[in-house]
Specification:
The structure is a single chain. With about 900 residues, the chain is mostly helical. Among the domains are: about 160 residues, 3-Layer(aba) Sandwich (Rossmann fold), CATH 3.40.50; about 130 residues, Serine Threonine Protein Phosphatase 5, Tetratricopeptide repeat; about 60 residues, Arc Repressor Mutant, subunit A. Helix content is about 65%, strand content about 5%. The strands form 3 sheets. The protein has a 5-stranded parallel beta sheet, with helices on both faces. Strands 6-8-7 form a 3-stranded antiparallel beta sheet. Strands 9-10 form a two-stranded antiparallel ribbon. Helix 1 runs parallel beside helix 2 and helix 32 packs antiparallel against helix 33. The longest helix has 19 residues. The radius of gyration is 44 Å and the shape is elongated.
Length: about 900
């Protein structure tokens, strides 16, 4: 475009000096500078002696009165002949420059004259300069361009200026104030006319508030009505829009969009991608949209949403938009938000809750519709960790339920949450739901099963032996979920009666049954999660660490990926307890620290009150601190235990008594019979919520009773351990714990060594404890035998990171006259989690592989499956940029194990 003025000047000079005529056809979008160029050409031609005709052609040359004998006045043929004659006469006198702008606006007669005269006067010194908008489908203009004499016609197309040219033009027009135009440049499209208009506005209007709207209005006014409607509609639909959707919005077939679309593209307002149209700049789209009244924008956006819904666009993709557009009482919008919540809830309960919450805002207040929406919101809020809001909403629905079915569903959700109902006369609500004829039978049965499971787990059925069995006989398996819940009920009930082998057998089908449930809702049901956590706890108690770890890892991954804070608060403590049992104390402590929120409180978990959930974690925290030797953590746990002991909840009091036993052993202090009785009740019950009491906790109870001079209580505990082992012959950990307890009570070193062998590698801490106890029994009579047992115990404690136990055994060795060497842990701590971006799990795998372990050996030591090890190793290879185990070992040795290297 920069050479076009010079080309025009040369053609004018050739006309004047050489009498060379012809046609110059100039086209381009509105404001591209066509009129400016024609005016420049006319100014250059006039001083040289050429005749310049810029008025309408027929008015300038056609005489007012027809000649005698001519055709009827107003005949096109007569007018054309007169114009032709006039031009011939003028061209004999001097060269003629005919300038005609906006040819696309000419009437049919003028277009006919131009098409005819350019051909007839081709040999004369007449230069035609014709300008028209590009890409306008005006048939007469198209015909004119086609019929111009090809050998004497030159064409020029004006395009937008490049950014540098735009800034130079702005500088020429505004001088020192050119920087003021910078924010408006994206709106100008590089068109000289628009640039001049904007600069004039900026220099004449000090406020500048209306510059953008004025510029955009000018550009829109220069479009044809179809093109203007296309741009305005597209501006409401976003920065880019698909052609098919735009055609449906305009109620036009796609071919009918071609003409206005070419005009819009030529004007530089939009650009065409592979399968969509996009505005040349977001600010341009925003400015165009701002020219529409807000009600029109809302109407167009709502129509767009409706069309996309009809085309099958998922409700989740449209929920936020329709929620922002809808007015109160808009039932269509509420249905879309409900559908979006159903789609989002399985993967992201927080997102589903947001959709339902917006639907509630749209629903009219104090209506059954709003209450039903509130009932749907309750479980989503609870899963996302908003337990207080969930309970408050449930209380609101129960106070004025819209119908019996909704009432029953809210009761079921509260039963799933656990804890007391947030209303008075909770039992009356349960009876009403269970006996109303309109409530479906599956809902009744699930409510009955879940309520019973909740009462078992929270300790509300302490003397439930026969009562539970009787209740189970009335619960029917009307659907797969209820059958799964019943299996867990029977398993928990069996544990209550110390039939742990039966509990394992009842829970065995649970993972397979959970996998068979509909994946859209199965993993999000508390009964399923509780059942799987319970199964993992039982597997850990039975010594199947790999099976337990697989369940825990997959459950925690699902909970974290889908934002289910309530379920993560179940899986993390389960993982910590598994790590504690396997002797991985530091990892267990870190897991427990993650479980606690910054406030020190846990998120609400299913099937229990918040206090009971905290008590279950408290027991694990105290156990980890007991072995590690963390004084501050142990004191914090002891203080919390006193709070539990002062409460009214019998289960929490027992848990507090147990933690006080650990604290007394830690401080080497005696215990009262009351505290020991409470701790014994905790151990005998065997579980706190879904947290199984470790098989070896009974050993610590016997130790505490003997240290406090309570031999009768110790004897009772030993008898319980032996009865438990006899009832569960398939669980070797119970047998080993019974031998350990009997060996402690009788001072039998051989029995304690046998117990150590029974604990084996599955329970390294208990094995080390049994060896230490054996050495203590032998210390007076067999120093050499005691030394061997203490050294083995020291090695076992050190491998687990049990620093307090290590120090205690070193003291026993020094008492025998032996100065023990510093014992390095057989499982050195993993490097800090920030090393090379690896996760904690990946670091654990890398450490073992770098030390020469196979995948299977690493899996056994980490209590995970070989498949999990392989996955972590593959991710580590990608992050570290290595391709072999040798490269991995070298990198690990150089950056982590080398002295003086910080990681």
């Amino acid at each position: 475009m920069t050479d076009t003025p010079e080309l025009l000047r040369r053609r004018v000079l050739r006309l004047v000096h050489r009498h060379e005529g012809g046609v110059l056809w100039i086209e381009g979008p509105a404001d591209s500078g066509k009129s400016h160029l024609l005016a420049q050409a006319a100014q250059q031609a006039a001083p040289t002696g050429a005749t310049v005709l810029t008025a309408p052609l027929l008015d300038a040359l056609a005489p007012r009165q027809p000649e005698a004998g001519a055709q009827e006045p107003g005949s096109p043929y007569q007018a054309l002949r007169q114009v032709e004659d006039g031009l011939r006469e003028l061209s004999r006198q001097r060269p003629v420059l005919v300038v005609h702008d906006d040819v696309h606006h000419c009437d049919d007669l003028t277009l006919l004259a131009l098409r005819t005269l350019t051909a007839r006067l081709a040999g004369l010194p007449v230069l035609w300069m014709l300008a028209a908008r590009s890409h306008l489908d005006v048939p007469a203009v198209t015909a004119l361009r086609r019929d111009l004499p090809a050998e004497q016609t030159d064409g020029f197309e004006l395009t937008a200026l490049d950014p540098d040219a735009v800034r130079r033009l702005v500088t020429d027009l505004m001088g020192p104030r050119a920087a003021e135009a910078e924010p408006y440049l994206p709106l100008l499209g590089g068109l000289p006319g628009t640039i001049r208009h904007a600069c004039a506005l900026l220099t004449s209007s000090p406020g500048h508030d209306e510059v953008a709207s004025a510029v955009v209005a000018r550009r829109l006014d220069q479009l044809t009505p179809p093109a203007r409607e296309l741009v305005l509609t597209a501006s409401v639909l976003g920065d880019s829009v698909r052609v098919r959707h735009l055609s449906r919005m305009l109620e036009l077939r796609e071919p009918a969009l071609l003409s206005p679309l070419r005009e819009v593209l030529a004007a530089g307002l939009m650009r065409a991608g592979r399968d969509h149209l996009a505005f040349t700049h977001p600010s341009l789209r925003a400015a165009v949209a701002a020219t529409l009244p807000p009600p029109v924008q809302v109407s167009l956006r709502r129509r767009s949403v409706d069309l996309r819904l009809a085309d099958g666009t998922p409700a989740t993709a449209l929920a936020a938009e329709i929620g922002a557009l809808a007015d109160p009482g808009d039932e269509g919008a509420i249905r879309v938000l409900e559908a979006a919540a159903r789609e989002a809830a399985p993967l992201a309960p927080a997102a589903g809750a947001a959709h339902v919450r917006r639907a509630m805002e749209l629903a009219l207040p104090a209506t059954p519709r709003r209450s039903r929406l509130a009932a749907r919101l309750v479980p989503l809020l609870w899963e996302a960790g908003e337990s207080d809001e969930a309970r408050a909403l449930a209380r609101e629905v129960l106070q004025t339920p819209p119908d019996p079915v909704t009432h029953a569903h809210v009761c079921l959700e509260l039963a799933r949450m656990g804890g007391p109902f947030p209303v008075h006369q909770a039992d009356a609500h349960l009876r009403r739901a269970l006996h109303h004829p309109d409530v479906p039978l599956p809902v009744k049965d699930q409510l009955r099963s879940t309520t019973l499971l909740n009462r078992l787990l929270t300790g509300a059925a302490e003397e439930a032996g026969g009562a539970v069995a009787g209740a189970l006989s009335h619960v029917r398996g009307t659907h797969p979920l209820n059958d799964l819940t019943q299996r867990t009920l029977r398993s928990v009930s069996a544990c209550h009666r110390q039939r742990w082998s039966d509990a394992l057998r009842h829970s065995e089908p649970v993972p397979a049954q959970a996998a068979e449930l509909d994946p859209a809702y199965g993993p999000m049901l508390p009964e399923v999660v509780l059942s799987l956590v319970w199964r993992a706890e039982l597997l850990g108690l039975a010594g199947d660490h790999e099976g337990a770890a697989d369940l825990i890892d997959s459950g925690l991954l699902e909970a974290e990926q889908r934002g289910r804070a309530a379920y993560a608060a179940l899986w993390r403590p389960a993982r910590a307890r598994l790590l504690l049992g396997g002797g991985r104390l530091r990892e267990a402590a870190r897991e427990l620290a993650v479980t606690q929120e910054p406030t020190g409180q846990m998120p609400a978990t299913p099937g229990t009150s918040d206090a009971a959930a905290e008590a279950a974690v408290l027991c694990a925290r105290a156990r980890a601190a007991f072995h590690i030797g963390d004084d501050r953590e142990m004191e914090a746990c002891a203080a919390r235990a006193e709070v539990c002991l002062a409460g009214d909840d019998r289960q929490l009091r027992r848990a507090g008594a147990w933690v006080s036993v650990l604290a007394a052993l830690y401080r080497d202090e005696p215990l009262s019979g009351e505290r020991l009785n409470g701790a014994a009740a905790h151990v005998r019950r065997g579980f706190l919520h879904v947290a199984c009491v470790d098989a070896g906790d009974l050993v610590l109870l016997v130790t505490a009773a003997l240290a406090s001079g309570q031999r009768e209580m110790a004897a009772t505990a030993v008898q319980f351990a032996e009865d438990r082992a006899r009832l569960n012959p398939g669980l070797p950990l119970f047998t080993a714990a019974a031998m350990h307890a009997r060996g402690l009570y009788a001072g039998d070193a051989e029995l304690l060594v046998e117990a150590a062998e029974g604990h084996g590698e599955v329970r390294p801490l208990l094995r080390a404890r049994a060896l230490e106890d054996a050495g203590r029994c032998l210390a007076a009579a067999d120093a050499r035998g005691a030394l061997s047992r203490f050294e083995d115990a020291l090695s076992g404690y050190a491998a687990c990171g049990a620093e307090r136990d290590v120090q205690r055994v070193r003291g026993r060795l020094r008492a025998l006259g032996v100065r023990p060497l510093a014992t390095a842990s057989a499982a050195p701590a993993a490097p800090a989690a920030e090393w090379r971006g690896l996760t904690r799990s990946e670091l654990g795998v890398v450490r073992l592989i770098a030390q020469g372990a196979t995948n299977r050996e690493a899996a056994e030591r980490l209590f995970v499956s070989p498949h999990t090890v392989n996955t972590h190793l593959r991710h580590a290879f990608e992050k570290l940029g290595v391709r072999s185990r040798v490269q991995l070992a070298r990198l690990y040795a150089r950056e982590v194990e080398s002295p003086g290297v910080a990681v």
